[in-house]
Structure prediction request, 439 residues.
Amino acid sequence: MFENLSSKLNTAIRTLKGQGRITDVNVAATVKEIRKALMDADVNYKVAKEITDKIKEEALGQKILIAVEPGQMLVKIVHDELTGLMGGEKKDINLKGDPAVVLIAGLQGSGKTTFSGKLAQHIKKGGRNVLLVACDIYRPAAIDQLKVLGEQVGVEVYAEPENKNAVSIAQNGIEYARKMGKKVVIVDTAGRLAVDEAMMNEIAAVKEAIKPTEILFVVDSMTGQDAVNTAKTFNDRLNFDGVVLTKLDGDARGGAALSIRHVVEKPIKFISTGEKMEALDQFYPDRMASRILGMGDVLSLVEKAQQAFDEEEAERINKKIRQNQFSFDDFYSQLQQIKKMGNIKDLMGMIPGMGQAVKDVDISNDSFKPIEAIIQSMTPAERKKPDIIDPSRKKRIATGSGTSIQQVNNLMKQFEDMRKMMRMMNKVQDGKMKMPTLP
Ligand code: GDP
Prediction:
């Protein structure tokens, strides 16, 4: 996400890094590059100009701070401006009310239904009882899609396939939620391929009838500048409360994220980075700015890990590590937990300095497949006691998993290194050994 913008901004800033001080001339050149990077990423021209003018003013105003390296200082200035541009503070979704009603609006294909499922899961994890309501009366497939997602995340879906009146379905759905004691209702509506009057009238009528606590506008970030225009049209009509940016996992240039907030003056509340139900993040402007500048986003990484890792499992593994019994079964189960965290490349991008380093590397969840296949081809005894894996067993495992002996060897070596490390950590914790220090 934002890889191009990120790399161009870094190049622009690097030109200042080698220079001892900030001058009118080098700032002008750098700022011009920053503006170009923003516009290449689809940031609206006016927005790009406004923000770079501010950056320039700030940078020149700080000429006297000679103790700080100009490049570093500029990173800070750009970071603060980007954060401000994206809204400053993180804004939460409003779930007051009994039940709270969240209306989901946006064009067809923007990712509304997928997001509705994700939001349902997110709210359910927060401990509230959720109901999904399917109000797309034009595409029968949309109802089925929502039902599949509802089942996946364990949330009930209210639908009336024969009813062709979106307003009455929404009202009935909320009535049903009240009766069943649901605390939050998410209403997924119909979209069209482009903005049209009938669609706007329908969603406005639904809004009028159900008086939602929160209206979220879902927009596909791959649509670039169009995303900004669509957001404006929907906002003029619905006065929505927040924006959901989807498909940020693709090669979206990301400029929409930077411009929408500025143009419609409504906060981005969520970003969606994949088709899996877990690929949803709350939007933190400052963390996003850090990511764009390659400063990493360790906080989001930690949060994701906390969500994906189940505490009991963590405790179980910890115990095994303490008893030097970590096995290939445990390794496999940890891999599954890591995979639940979502797109690996995006995760790596959250580690400071890694974003740029991995941008051209092909890392996907599929990279784990050979490892998984190798472990699956081992017998339970081998997984538990890898020491018994002799050359003939290795050959069998390689054949069974469709990999090479070399790959099996590599995995076994990595696993042994991991176990060695764990044994060492245990000794350090028990006070039998000092942490080795670097020479
Ligand atoms: P709707 O018509 O607005 O309800 O859109 P859908 O939820 O049906 O999404 C349209 C397509 O985009 C589907 O194929 C989804 O799987 C896909 N999609 C939705 N969100 C994301 C996302 O964040 N990343 C990616 N890569 N695909 C997404």
